[in-house]
Amino acid sequence: MKKFKVVVNGESFDVEVEELATITQAGLHENLSTKVAPVAVSKKAKAQVHGANAVTAPLPGNINDIKVTVGDQVNAGDVLIILEAMKMENEVKAPMDGKIKEVHVRKGQVVQSGELLIVMA
Fold first, then answer.
1. CB under 8 Å to 28, separation ≥6 — which residues?
2. Which of 26, 55, 88, 93 could make an S-S bridge to 118, C-beta 3.0–4.6 Å?
3. CB of 100 within 8 A of CB of 71?
4. Domain that holds residue 83
């Protein structure tokens, strides 16, 4: 058990974290189990991390369906991915007109809020 001090919005919290598994690149999602509250990430911060044409997960959940493939032409508002969170299906829509350049997830994958899903061109 490791102890840390975390500051959220200027308020300090003491937390304890228990390591449950060794993290490896290949098994990151499968082996790591943590209980951490999701952190809100602004669109500006997401763009700085992944680029302005990135589509990121709006909330943590499971990828139920991917409606596009690399090379598809989409219009703003088209459904790209169905993300299940808390037993509800959420549509992740294209933020702009463009072409699908990269798909970074697969059906059945668990994603976290702010995680890169798709890159558009």
1. none
2. 55
3. yes
4. 2-120
Per-residue tens of pLDDT for the chain, all 121 residues:
788 887 877 777 788 877 665 555 554 554 444 445 555 555 555 555 667 789 999 999 999 999 999 999 999 999 999 999 988 999 999 999 999 999 999 999 999 988 999 999 9
pTM: 0.60
Instruction: Kindly report the CATH number assigned to the domain that includes residue 9.
Output: 2.40.50.100
Locate 107 and state its tokens. 């059906």
Q: Using CA atoms, how far apart are residues 103 and 115, in angstroms rounded to an integer?
A: 12
H or E element: which one contains 87? none
- Give, for 33, the enclosing helix (H) or strand (E): none
Q: What is the 3-state secondary structure (H, E, C) of 45-78?
A: HHHHHHCCCEEECCCCEEEEEECCCCCCEECCCC
